[in-house]
Amino acid sequence: MNRIVRLVHAQEQQHTQATDLNVLQTPKKCRQKRNPRRVSYRRRLQFPASPGRGSFSALRGGGFGGGLDCFAYEHSGTEGTQVFPMAGASAPLKVCIVGSGNWGSAVAKIIGNNVKTMQKFASTVKMWVFEETINGRKLTDIINNDHENVKYLPGYKLPENVVAVPNLTEAVKDADLLVFVIPHQFIYKICDAIAGHVTKQAVGITLIKGIDEGPEGLRLISDVIRAKMGIDISVLMGANIANEVAAEKFCETTIGSKILENGLLFKELLQTPNFRITVVDDADTVEICGALKNIVAVGAGFCDGLRCGDNTKAAVIRLGLMEMIAFAKIFCKGQVSIATFLESCGVADLITTCYGGRNRRVAEAFVKTGKSIEELEQEMLNGQKLQGPQTSAEVYRILQQKGLVEKFPLFTAVYKICYEGKPVQEMISCLQSHPEHI
Questions:
Q1: Contact 75, 47 (CB under 8 A)
Q2: Which pLDDT does position 369 carry in this prediction?
Q3: For 342, which DSSP code?
Q4: Where do the H-state alpha helices sit in 196-259?
Q5: At 90, is the pLDDT very low, low, confident or very high (cuts 50, 70, 90)?
Q6: The whole model's pTM is what?
């Protein structure tokens, strides 16, 4: 009996080419006890068969920490293969969420509930919280005792296994999986603070919607984290209004990952029956969609404030999408697939944000009240930062550097209205003279 055995995680069978290998689904008992990520890519150690006794193979993990995860026993007198988990396999993966705002708290609710049922992940989830005082109590104390982020996600209980930690380096210590969900303008400060405190074996995912300026123009937030931390970073973007996600209303999202194995790992950590995830390898496009759609949403909010009607707003969305695609094709270093814009991270997120997001709401109030963006952030967002206006400023400077301002009139109009005091009516003028109509 010399039949070769390869074990794969059930979710990954569709990605496996079974040629001369017999691809077997890991038995449920083993899947529950071992890390499926380690069961995916194996070195097989063959031990010779004894007469009448069959043979067995030890399967060595190729992911975190190595070690023998399972062994497979094949008996010459029976069909099939029995697989048993090895004692002393690697410890469960520890998760840390870096950020605790509206979206970060909603994600913490998902992860906290998911890890309760998965032995692959540690049962305690650390969440770094920027300490604030709410009615005389520390926000971390409120979260850890009342299990609710009363400032940023009021009305939704967090799982008791989500632990708020005010010390950033203590929160990320020993973490295997890092989930970044902070305003993008703070990413350098955060990375500088935790560099050297995160293991090189860790992997991360960013839910941050924004971009940075680099010496050659565009620099993605994932690139910043990757350079600062020296770890692989996936991205998650989609039509995900935080309160609706926390309320467990059905939605979709997209994970972009340059290392598919890591994208599938985060899918397992985050997916629920009402939070469905597609994994693609076009990570840069996924990320750029999440940043640029906020600029378009500000433009949509201006239209609502001017009472332009649905036809005009639809034009803003369409022309905004065209500028998003054009920008990605010019500035993304990796592949840019138009199909990615049809995922949740693209058209779906754009539509949701232009109708229900806070960038749209604040932009509408900007037109109707005459107040500044900063004033409205304090009044409407509990002091949280709006991403659309700041991203428009970063995009404008990148376009200026390349001499491309005139090719992106919608992005440019949003910037000039927000920061240069141009009248909001310029939003309509930019639509009327848009290059798409020439």
A1: no
A2: 96
A3: G
A4: 221-229, 242-246
A5: confident
A6: 0.79
Cβ neighbours for 207, distance < 8 A, ≥ 6 positions apart: 103, 104, 107, 179, 180, 181, 235, 236, 237
What integer pLDDT is reported at residue 383 of this predicted model? Answer: 73
CA distance 218 to 394: 9
- Taking CA atoms, 138 is separated from 135, 149, 158, 197, 340, in Å, by 8, 11, 17, 25, 42
Counting other chains too, the contacts that 173-176 makes at CB distance below 8 Å and 24 or more residues apart are 173/197, 174/94, 174/199, 175/94, 175/95, 175/96, 175/126, 175/199, 175/202, 176/64, 176/93, 176/94, 176/95, 176/201, 176/202, 176/203
Can you give the pLDDT at residue 335?
81
Tokens of 74: 């094949």
Burial of 318 (0-12, 13-18, 19+ CB in 10 A): middle
Whole-number Å distance between alpha carbons of 21 and 44: 12
| CA dist 426 → 90, 294, 303, 390 (Å) | 59, 18, 11, 19
Is-contact 410 292, C-beta < 8 A? no
Say if residue 330's pLDDT is above 70.
Answer: yes
Contact between 384 and 102 under an 8 Å Cβ cutoff? The reply is yes
From the list 62, 73, 74, the residue with the least C-alpha distance to 35 is 62
How many Å apart are CA 416 and CA 314, to the nearest integer? Answer: 21
> Would you say residue 306 has pLDDT above 50?
yes
Residue keyed to tokens 């926390």:
246
Q: Among all chains, which residue has been given the structure tokens 């049962």?
A: 123
What is the sign of the dihedral through the CA atoms of 202, 266, 270 and 268? negative
CA distance 351 to 282: 21
Cβ burial, residue 257 (10 Å; 0-12/13-18/19+): buried
Q: Which residues are catalytic?
A: 293
End-to-end CA distance of the chain: 72
